[in-house]
Amino acid sequence: MSQRGVTTVRDAGGRFALDPRTYRWADRLSKLGGVALVAAGLEVGGGSVVGVALGASGAALALSTVFVERTADPARDDTDE
Prior knowledge:
81 residues
């Protein structure tokens, strides 16, 4: 019986890598959290310091998975060789 867990690996460049299923969930949650923070910033007032800080934090959170890579999934080979 195999057990699926969160696999976090650091490569030689210091980047994080997640298995594809975990990556998809992390990507979705970071995007939703980012949108919520941007919406909260607009609700507070987009021109205020707090609104701008919330908006910038939301954008940073939404884009945070850009720096995370997916590990190879041997069960799903998408190469066209």
